[in-house]
Every structure is written in structure tokens, then in C-alpha cells.
Design brief:
Layout: E1 2-6, H1 11-15, H2 18-27, E2 32-37, H3 42-45, E3 53-56, H4 62-78, E4 83-86, H5 91-99, E5 104-108, E6 119-121, H6 132-141, H7 161-173, E7 181-187, H8 198-209, E8 215-221, H9 226-239, E9 248-249, H10 256-265, E10 268-272, H11 275-280, E11 287-291, H12 296-299, E12 309-313, H13 333-336, H14 340-352
Parallel strand pairs: 1-2, 1-4, 2-3, 4-5, 5-6, 7-8, 7-10, 8-9, 10-11, 11-12
Helix pairs in contact: 4-5, 8-9, 8-14
């Protein structure tokens, strides 16, 4: 049996499908699983042992992009998949699913595109307080797969041993040895709905650097947020005494695979609800996650409860959650009102319990 899984676009959404990969392999043990993904999120699944193949589909606009997708559709059809599961449901994913001509195509009941599937599953339009893993799992329920439990099917992201070795060498060059306690602070500033103030991140980084002389705070960011990360590092160092400034490190950019290995070495991860947070959730590292327009119920770390994760949020806001298109109050209060003190308190408690 040949099965194609389709999930385009966001890193976190691809992470949320990894429990389904393992479940399908268990449900159909002799099946050959292939995953169709876009470049940004490809590292999440590229080393997954349950996948026989990963097809990376770059996004192109206009007529050239449409023609490329038609060519990709012909490629999928030649592979003669028996089953396609479209976890995405967007126009491009629906088209590619249909072009595969698989005899069974499972997708969401979406106006204007439902005809592209043989098996259709209802998907409410409202933002429900239900985890995204469970929302996507509804497609597997149609295939007879039992409901998911994070203890049985957690999110995963395997990486190659080469990445592990090279990252160890990179950290050693920064003076980070086995005796150090790494704290990863991920800065996200490009999207105003995910933009916690630079000063707040810097205050957290400085406070955690003072918790223990062995702590090394590594500030990470996406490529578009590199300037924000540099400002957090500089501001945090200004807050520290001269002898402690070297505990806040500037290690440059990390690829997704490198970030995954980095958090495996860490004593703590701190960051907003973003792709890197979901990468971190595939590890056992204790986590402090900041939730603004999103809800922990939808995107908390999907893993065993034995691995601690604290959600920091502003409760009681009538505008939350939202679709992140327009901030009704105009001041992004759902995230801006989270105080550094709240994050520092949660982080220090987790560090104390992870000695």
C-alpha cells in the first residue's frame, strides 16, 4: 500500500502531523509512506524513519507556479498512491491531492474544493479550544485510527548524527561545555501578533543568566528577526555586571535541525507560540511558552506530561483568540501585557526543578 501525506506551509502545522505519521505506520505496517511538504518545514520530516520518501514542493507564483504544480501532479500520479491524506486543505494542497488520482483521497469538507476528495471530514470554521493535533487527526478517524494520546504518539523530529556532532563543536568553540546549563530564548519579532517587546526579552535573558554561574543563555531567532535578537543580546548584557555578561551568547543563526539538537542539550526553552517552539516540543526540554492571540489548548507542546511545559498568557480578553489579521484593540494587548516577571518566575521554577 502506498500512502501520500500532504501538509504545506507552516512549520508548527507540519510538527503537529508527526504523531499521525507514526499512527499510520502502525495502522498499516506494510505501507510505504511519502510526505509532501514545502521547503521551510521539510527538515521536520526529512529524517523521519517512518517515511520512505519526502517530496519538497517549492512555492512559485503565477502561471509558472501553476504549471510546476501540474508537473508535480503528473509525478504524483505516476507513483500510483492508493491513499492520500490532505492535512492542509488549502487550494494548492487540494489540487495536488486531486491530481494524484489516488482512488481514495481524504480531506476536509471545504466549500468549492470538497469534490476533490473521496472521503470528506467536517472542519468547523471557528477557532476551537481543541489541540491542532486532534483537529488534524479527524482525518485519520475516517480511516479507523483510534484517538491520539501524546504519551503514545508525541510530536517528533529526528535529525542526523552529523548535525549533533557539528553543533557540539560549535558550542565548544563558544566555551559551552558539558558543565554548562543552556537556556534557549527564542525571539520572534517579525509578526506584530507574536512580537513581545525587546526590552522584555532582554530582562528575561539577563535574569536567567544570573540564576546560576553555569547558565549560558543562547538567544535564537528566525532570519528576519536577527536584528531583534542582536538587540536582545546587547540590552541583556548591559543589564548584567561585567563578570556575567559573557553568559549571554551570540551564536548566530541556527537551522531548524540545529535548533532541534540545541534544545536537546538545553536545560530550558523560552519563546512564543511559533514554529521553533513546536520544534522544541519534540524534545524533553522544560519549556516556558508565551501565548498571545493563540490558545495553549490549541498549540501546547504535544508530548508526555512528564516533560514540564508552562504556558504564560493574559486571561479574560474577549478578543482572544483571533485570526491574526487585525488587532481589534490595536495595541496587541494579548501579548504585550505579559510581564517579564511572569516569564522569569516560571523559568526559574523550571530551572530549579531541572538541576
Amino acid at each position: 500500500m502506498k500512502i501520500l501525506l500532504v501538509r504545506l506551509r507552516q512549520i508548527g502545522d507540519v510538527v503537529f502531523t508527526t504523531p499521525a505519521i507514526a499512527a499510520l505506520k502502525s495502522q498499516f505496517p506494510g505501507a510505504r509512506l511519502t510526505y509532501l511538504v514545502e521547503p521551510a518545514a521539510a527538515p521536520v520530516v526529512s529524517s523521519n524513519p517512518d517515511l520512505a520518501d519526502v517530496i519538497v514542493a517549492p512555492r512559485r507564483s503565477g502561471v509558472r507556479g501553476f504549471l510546476a504544480d501540474l508537473g508535480l501532479g503528473r509525478r504524483l500520479r505516476r507513483q500510483r498512491f492508493d491513499l492520500v491524506v490532505d492535512f492542509h486543505g488549502g487550494p494548492r494542497a487540494s489540487l495536488l491531492t486531486w491530481l494524484s488520482r489516488a482512488p481514495r483521497r481524504v480531506g476536509y469538507e471545504i466549500a468549492g474544493r470538497a469534490w476533490m476528495y473521496t472521503d470528506r471530514v467536517a472542519r468547523p470554521r471557528e477557532l476551537r479550544a481543541r489541540h491542532s493535533v486532534e483537529n488534524q487527526w479527524d482525518l485519520l478517524t475516517a480511516l479507523g485510527v483510534a484517538p491520539p494520546r501524546p504519551e503514545e504518539y508525541p510530536v517528533t523530529m529526528p535529525v542526523s548524527s552529523d548535525v549533533d556532532t557539528s553543533l557540539r563543536q560549535r558550542l565548544e568553540a563558544q566555551g559551552v561545555g558539558p558543565a554548562c546549563r543552556i537556556v534557549v530564548v527564542h525571539v520572534s519579532a517579525g509578526n506584530p501578533f507574536r512580537r513581545w517587546p525587546i526590552e522584555s526579552f532582554a530582562e528575561v535573558a539577563a535574569a536567567l543568566a544570573e540564576v546560576d554561574p553555569a547558565v549560558r543563555v543562547i538567544v535564537t531567532s528566525g532570519p528576519s528577526d536577527a536584528d531583534a535578537a542582536a538587540r536582545v543580546i546587547a540590552t541583556a548584557r548591559e543589564k548584567l555586571k561585567a563578570g556575567a555578561r559573557a553568559r549571554v551568547l551570540d551564536c548566530g543563526e541556527f537551522s531548524l535541525a540545529e535548533l532541534r539538537v540545541l534544545v536537546e542539550f538545553a536545560a530550558l526553552y523560552v519563546g512564543g507560540d511559533s514554529g521553533p517552539m513546536h520544534i522544541a516540543s519534540t524534545s524533553r526540554v522544560p519549556m516556558v511558552s508565551l501565548y498571545g492571540p493563540t490558545l495553549p489548548a490549541r498549540s501546547r507542546p504535544w508530548r508526555a506530561a512528564a516533560f514540564p511545559a508552562v504556558a504564560v498568557e493574559v486571561a479574560g480578553l474577549p478578543c482572544r483568540p483571533c485570526d491574526q489579521r487585525v488587532c481589534e484593540p490595536g495595541d496587541f494587548r494579548c501579548l504585550a501585557r505579559i510581564t517579564p516577571g511572569q516569564v522569569i518566575d516560571a523559568a526559574t521554577r523550571l530551572l530549579a526543578g531541572n538541576g
